[in-house]
Structure formats: structure tokens, C-alpha cells
Specification:
12% strand; 45% helix; alpha/beta
């Protein structure tokens, strides 16, 4: 088998992440108990707030907490009281220093893949927060290099290719996010492996062309061993 360059996403590809945020969102919306808007409408407001917050503060739990505060004030049309702000912070506390839970089969599959190919890690978010998860995962030794970036757009992948001197025709981006893992990598000329996750963040969803032969669709992480 020809040696390939496998670039891995981290959150919701190697370990669980968004399900933690979804649990907080569920509790937050229950606590809001808005008198006129249903859960779907409330989630749309929160999504809009998150888009705006990310543009200023980036990704991560601190940015998300800020979004919860802003969303409350937008919906209630007033500033939160000290008690309400404390409750929002309490609801989001589970996102800080949580235990890293690897996806099924990840550790064993990575160990085998590392003997056959060059592995890199590319994750977006707040640097200290992402590094904590990388360290806690016990997977860092499998990767030739790790990269924490503010955003994953086509330019991010082009910079990675140039910096690491990668050959695009043997480089694959592996992840669960259609928008930032698959489509952005494809736009930069890389191949991609899409491994969907049931709790992929709604803001990362985007349609993948089923006719794109540069994208390999797998159901589970260990299936990588059948192709690489």
C-alpha cells in the first residue's frame, strides 16, 4: 500500500465533543422556558447568536458561554440579573475540564494506521482548551505534528500543505464536519474521508456532493483500516 498522509480532525472524530454542548443547550432551553417561542425557534436564535459570537471570539467553551448570555438578553429584552448569569454559568460548567471520551475503536485503529502512514492532527478552537484535550486523549504520540487553528477554511489547508510539504494527491482530511473538514479540504485540492457523527454541530452541516469521487464515506472510524 502506498504511504498516505492522513490528517485527522479531533472533536467528534477522535473523541466526543458536541454532545456535551447539546446537553447544555437542552438544559439551557428548558431553563429559559420562553412563553411564546418553541424549542426550534429558540434554537434558531441561539444559532444566530453563535454565528455572530464566533466571528468575534472564535470557538470553544468560553465563546459558547458568551453566546448563552447574549441569547438570554436578546430573548428577554433585558440584562440578566446576577443570579441569572450565575445560573447560565452553572449550566455550562460541564464543558470545562470534562473527561475526554474517545470514539469507539479510535485508539486501536490509530495505532495501526501510524505504522502504515504519516498522521497529522488538525483541530480548530481555543488553543489551550484544544491542547488540554489532545494531552488527555493519550493519542498525541501517533501524530507527526499537531495543529490548532482558529478556523478551517480552504486557505487553512493550503497553508498546512505548504508548511508540511505535503503532496496533495496522497493527503486525506478525515473528519465528521461537512463544512470545515470535508468541503474546505476538497476546495484546497485534498481528498477527504467523511465519518458522520449523530451529534455534529448544526452550524457545521452542509451538503456533500454524493458524486464527488474524492470523498470516501465511512460509517465508523475503524473502517479506515480497510482502506488505508
Amino acid at each position: 500500500m502506498q504511504r498516505q498522509i492522513l490528517v485527522f480532525d479531533a472533536d467528534d472524530t477522535l473523541w466526543e465533543n458536541n454532545v456535551l454542548f447539546e446537553r447544555v443547550v437542552h438544559d439551557y432551553l428548558e431553563w429559559l422556558a420562553h412563553p411564546t417561542l418553541d424549542r426550534a425557534a429558540l434554537r434558531e436564535v441561539l444559532d444566530d447568536v453563535e454565528r455572530a459570537t464566533i466571528a468575534v471570539h472564535g470557538y470553544g467553551s468560553a465563546s459558547f458561554l458568551n453566546s448563552l448570555h447574549v441569547c438570554f438578553e436578546r430573548l428577554q429584552r433585558r440584562a440578566a440579573t446576577d443570579a441569572e448569569r450565575a445560573e447560565i454559568t452553572r449550566l455550562a460548567a460541564a464543558l470545562v475540564d470534562h473527561e475526554v471520551e474517545l470514539m469507539p475503536g479510535v485508539a486501536a485503529a490509530l495505532a495501526q494506521l501510524a505504522t502504515r502512514h504519516e498522521l497529522l492532527l488538525l483541530t480548530k478552537g481555543q488553543a489551550e482548551e484544544q491542547q488540554r484535550k489532545i494531552d488527555a486523549s493519550g493519542l498525541a504520540h501517533h501524530f507527526r505534528s499537531t495543529h490548532i487553528v482558529a478556523e478551517k477554511v480552504p486557505a487553512t489547508y493550503r497553508e498546512l500543505v505548504a508548511e508540511q510539504r505535503l503532496a496533495a494527491d496522497v493527503t486525506w482530511m478525515i473528519g465528521n464536519s461537512p463544512r470545515s473538514d470535508i468541503l474546505a479540504a476538497r476546495a484546497a485540492g485534498l481528498r477527504a474521508v467523511f465519518i458522520p457523527h449523530p451529534y455534529t454541530w448544526s452550524l457545521e452541516e452542509q451538503e456533500i456532493d454524493p458524486a464527488d469521487r474524492g470523498v470516501l464515506h465511512l460509517a465508523r472510524f475503524p473502517e479506515l483500516l480497510e482502506h488505508f
